[in-house]
Amino acid sequence: MDQAACKMRRKDRLFHARRTVAKRPQIDISLRAAIGNVRKPTSDILACKCYLDDPWPDVLQYSLDSRNFVEDVYRVDLRGGFKNKDDKEARELVYKRIAAGAAFLRDLAYTAWIDSAKPVPLVKPIDEPQNPENPRYNPAAGSAPAPDHSH
Predict the structure, then answer these.
(1) Does this model's pTM top 0.70?
(2) Mean pLDDT in the chain?
């Protein structure tokens, strides 16, 4: 991308949001079509569109919750449960973990989609992270911390 295109894109902070929102009806149609192809144990994962106000604590909580299943995975694996397609406990564990992962990924994607339509506040040149005049600029890092857009 040349310099002029790069500058123009930086000025147009809604570039991504317009393209994402413009494709939304097509995504919804594809999602509804996909629901029909999902087996019953995981079909409920597509039912909710849940916005995450602050995704980072949810990422940490998902990781903490997932570790509670490590012993179950090892136990089922040691007795050969994953080799037997008719093993009820193994099947249930796989369905539940896939459903949990897919639901969490759905929530992250939905949150990113909604947030991408929000305008990003303009950053004053002095506050640009790569500007050596920025009061928070760290010469060793070659930048300052990114501006906080959460307000």
Answers:
(1) no
(2) 76
